[in-house]
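#onboarding

Welcome to the new folks! Below is a worked example of what a typical request in this channel looks like: someone posts a single protein sequence, and someone else replies with the predicted structure as tokens. Don't worry about understanding the tokens yet, we'll cover that in week two.

Example request:
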Amino acid sequence: MSDRTRILIALDASSHSLAALEAAVEIAHQRGGELLGVFVEDANLLRLSTCSLAKEVGASAAESRDLNQPGLESIFRANAAHARQALELAAEHRRIPWEFQVIRGEVQQTIVELVKEAEVVALGAMGSQWTSSSGFGSTALGVLQHAKGGVFIARSGKSITFPVTVVSRRLEESLPMLETAFGMGHLCHHYLNVLYLPDDDPMHELELRQWLTQVSQEKAVLFRMYVLNPPSMMNLGGYLEAFRPGTLILPDLPWLKKKRFLHQLGKLDSPVYLMREL
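Example response:
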């Protein structure tokens, strides 16, 4: 691997992780980055398979069979091979450098530890684990709360959806998010929504409007700007619930570790891209 921006993708057999892969490829293409795909063999399931009472129950039929370690390891190998192939095809189609690793461990703990050093991580909102009350799976919640870099979370098998909605503060701080939004494919067919969290200086709002007007004209993209005053968690959550954004791009808000705000995000069923730098 090189000094390029590294985008880590947590891959499994779910449609959510394949949607996250699609977003990761787009992010890597924009940033000139490279992809690191990781498949975690669930150590808890392997321990369970050594129990003589362990059974596998089919989701579509009332059938069960013994769950044994060799059978489970065979499933892991097949799923890992599928994940690797999906990564290879997606990355090489866009000529993006990539690497793939298989790690055995407890899924949530392993992923959370890996993302602490990742510049950007992409994963699905839910994997094979039970979902939490917030609408995010336990691994996605752990990543949102512990990752130091950026986080993209795909929802309901969806990658980047439109319209793109950016939660913005003053222009200097929000420029990477806005440029990312304008650079997303097919944005020219949609609006760009900007939710502005104002500060005490009205010139910051004017500066942002002028920049948006100039860039939107250059790229032939319409934008709609909304000022959330006061810039509170309640106002932002209320707007998002009412207007249902497409892909939501967020700055590193102080509310992100609060269960109430994560619960609101979880109910949106929108892909979420939290942008922050290490």
